[in-house]
Amino acid sequence: MIPFLDLKTPHIELEEELVQVFREALRNAAFIGGPQVEAFENEFAEFCGTKYCVGVNSGTDALRFALIAAGIGPGDEVITVPNTFIATTEAISQAGATPSFVDIDERTYNMDPQKLKDYLRKRSAPSAGRHASRPKAVIPVHLYGQPADMDAILEIADQYHLIVIEDACQAHGAGYFSKKENRWKKAGSMGLAAAFSFYPGKNLGACGEGGAVTTNDEEIAQKVRMLRDHGQIKKYFHDMEGYNGRLDAIQAATLRIKLRHLSDWNEKRQQNAHRYNELFGQSDGVITPYEPSWTRAVYHLYIIRTSERDRLQQFLSQQAIGTGLHYPIPLHLQKAYSESRYTAGDFPISEKVASTILSLPMFPELTHHQQEFVVGRIKEFLSGE
Ligand SMILES: Cc1ncc(COP(=O)(O)O)c(C=O)c1O
């Protein structure tokens, strides 16, 4: 049995440390806010290379609060990609805005800057006609742990006066080389604000729900702090209506322990990804991930593509190899958006990719032997043995 994800091993290894902080929280009855949350926020901001980090209840809350804090609301359109988890567009709708899509780059699976540019050019042309909303922000998603092409996206956003919020929910610690600044930057430090998820299966996962907004903008950080806590900074003094979206103290303490291991875990994921690539070599019928020289992906997921996807997934399941689909149906074709202006064929690359992707087992503890077994079975299937 090779699991898709091994959540047990890291928790067994960290059990004593984790139990210790759970015990301290119980003895101090310290559950909401407090020093563990503040310490985690400082440590994660430092890790990402941002001035501020505000802990919240989930990645979805992080996206929603970042959008609202940036002034996005009714009448605004927020552009993202169709091949993401629905939380990206839920947050846009829940902020009162309208989601719209541009297609992805077929090699990186991330937003194609040229398509963003073409779309914005079309929307601002005199012949564009009337639209119910106007583009105000863009959310590039650093899918599978690989940063989108942020230099290009930021330049286009600047030209069209768009706010950029990064969806870094799968990209804790991923690197992007900014040619403009001639330096490596971390995912979550490039837009006006960024959202992270600490859902347990993420590269940095809590023992429950968790999320964070990172930003260099003091006003955004302050607004997110208010939004997560019923619009208050001082107890029972509400400057606005907010939400109940706080990061709890036990999760913050858990995340502080795990953050110390994140770089090591990410490195192991990278080694595993490179080993998969080597094992596949130039195998016929399999497309392995493309990592441009200007990114350092952290392989939240390792994706292959094959036209035999459904049959291969079934075969691997019979061999007790866990796999996943991220994501099987692009958002514009989901039932939830059946009333939208989109139909099949609108985003051909996202649609093609969705029908051919397969997520293979990927976690830091994955062994050489397990990877050889997985690739061996896939090659066996594809060669029709
Ligand atoms: C790309 C992306 N965006 C947003 C989210 C939402 O995060 P959460 O599940 O913590 O609300 C996730 C998490 O699954 C995600 O993968």
Structural class: alpha/beta
Rg = 21 Å
CATH architecture of the largest domain: 3-Layer(aba) Sandwich
Average predicted local confidence, pLDDT: 97
The portion of residues assigned to helices is 25-40%
* Biggest β-sheet: strands ordered side by side in the sheet: 1-9-8-5-4-2-3
The CATH class assignment of the largest domain is Alpha Beta
What is the overall number of helices?
12
Bound molecules: pyridoxal-5'-phosphate
Task: List the keywords.
single chain; 385 residues; alpha/beta; Aspartate Aminotransferase, domain 2; Aspartate Aminotransferase, domain 1; three-stranded antiparallel β-sheet; 12 helices; 39% helix; binds pyridoxal-5'-phosphate
What is the fold's blueprint, element by element?
Elements lengths: L7 H6 L1 H14 L6 H14 L3 E5 L2 H11 L6 E5 L6 H8 L3 E4 L11 H12 L9 E5 L11 H10 L3 E5 L7 E4 L4 E4 L6 E5 L13 E5 L2 H10 L4 E3 L2 E2 L10 H32 L14 E2 L5 E4 L3 H10 L29 H7 L2 E4 L7 H15 L3
Parallel strand pairs: 2-3, 2-4, 4-5, 5-8
Antiparallel strand pairs: 1-9, 6-7, 6-12, 8-9, 10-11, 13-14
Helix pairs in contact: 2-9, 3-9, 4-5, 4-8, 9-12
Pyridoxal-5'-phosphate binds next to helix 4 and helix 5.
